[in-house]
Amino acid sequence: MKKFLATLLALCLLLPAGALADGLTLNTTSPFADYDFAAQAYVDALAAWEQATGNMVDDSSALPDETWMTAVSDGLNRGTLDVVFYPPANFTDDMAAQFVPVSEIAAQYPDLALPVPDSLKMADGNVYALPMRYTFVALYVNADLFESNGVALPTTWQQLLEAVRKFQELGVIPISNALADWPHDLVDCAVLAAGDPADRAADPTQGVPASYARGMDMLRELYDAGAFGADALTVSDGEAERRFVEHEAAMRVSGEWLGSSIPVEQMETTIVLAMPAYGEGAVEGALVGAVTMGCYITRAAWEDDARREAAVSLVQALLTGENAGALSYAFSGRLLDSARTLTQGAPVLARSLMDVAGDGFYAWMAELPDVLTGSASAASVLEAAF
């Protein structure tokens, strides 16, 4: 605790001398309440900041229902809120005037260095949310299996193929995903790794992007190499996940939800990586994902010197260091570190094909086994789906 408080005090020293007035009270709100995994961590972080700065926080966090949304709107209209944690998906263009663009914050506080994904741009071209939580779909890796067997981590396509070959020789399933029961996340990643991320903006009913078929080429190459195990076309997704968690498999493609299912003692030996780039136009490190929770500083706080300095101090305390991890994910250790590196360093956050391609995507998934076994062509399946 002493080390943590010392860190907060050091952060406060980054602000102009005398900027924080003793006794100042910040008004905050968030959906971190009741069953949210970070509810207690949030309360503890606010208390630690209060102790470190001599300021106070009046927090009105609650379940993110209509009542809370209305309370947020009322607080903004009255100018009584200073820092708001809010889902970017619910942030509307008409709310923009009540918050400060990240570019304006960065210009005055360059030490508050946080990623600013283009996906968060509003209609006026500004980003208002400082990213706090992400959803993602990527490649989970049992790093201890790689390290104990002298296998390079799969950060390139060739390294992935070599890992598949070596783990097959060792009798370990290379990639544990169910190809008939639930291949959706795997295909999502493969298509992004196989082509231009801009394809995610295309309506496939108006012409199927080339990356869709190249993603099938990628999966077919892995399938032919034996990457998914002998029963990948019949195994359930739950069993495929169990095999990864219990180290019967080296890798698995899944979302951030898998991280919280991994035993705590294994979080130091599990990491998550972007799927290696495969096709023409692919971007290394591109990620299927989105920012699901943002931190916003209100215009009302910004225009008051003391409130502005306190708000920036609080934001910096909550979005950096140990707090950032505790408030972002329900897992820890090396897994948490790799997830933060993965998301914050992603050059592209791409929408899921399940959102982009609609019902056609599910029709496509139903025919995936035939594509992988060669009994149907990717072109014919995609044409029929869209």
CATH architecture term of the largest domain: 3-Layer(aba) Sandwich
Q: How much helicity do the residues have?
A: 40-55%
Count of DSSP strands: 9
Task: Briefly note the structural class of the backbone.
Answer: alpha/beta
User: How would you describe the shape?
Assistant: globular
Q: So what's the CATH class of the largest domain?
A: Alpha Beta
In total, the number of domains comes to 2
* Order of secondary-structure elements: HEHEHEHEHHEHHHEHEEHHHHEHHHH
User: Superfamily at the CATH H level of the largest domain?
Assistant: Periplasmic binding protein-like II
Number of helices, counting only DSSP H or I runs of 4 residues or more: 18
In the CATH scheme, what's the topology name of the largest domain? Answer: D-Maltodextrin-Binding Protein, domain 2
Distance between the termini: 56 Å
Low-confidence stretches: 1-21
Strand content: 5-15%
Give the integer mean of the pLDDT values. 93
Biggest sheet details: 9 strands, mixed
Question: How large is the radius of gyration?
Answer: 23 Å
Notes on the protein architecture:
The structure is a single chain. With 386 residues, the protein is an alpha/beta fold. It has two domains: 2-134 and 291-333, D-Maltodextrin-Binding Protein, domain 2 (3-Layer(aba) Sandwich), CATH 3.40.190.10; 135-289 and 345-385, 3-Layer(aba) Sandwich (D-Maltodextrin-Binding Protein, domain 2), CATH 3.40.190. 44% of the residues lie in helices and 14% in strands. The chain contains 18 helices and nine strands. The protein has helices spanning 2-12, 39-53, 66-78, 102-108, 143-148, 157-170, 184-193, 210-224, 237-245, 256-259, 299-302, 305-319, 321-328, 333-344, 353-356, 359-366, 368-373, 378-385, and strands at residues 25-29, 56-59, 83-86, 130-142, 173-175, 249-255, 270-273, 287-297, 349-350. Strands 1, 2, 3, 4, 5, 6, 7, 8 and 9 form a nine-stranded mixed β-sheet that branches. Helix 1 crosses helix 2 and helix 7 crosses helix 8. The protein is globular and about 70 Å long.
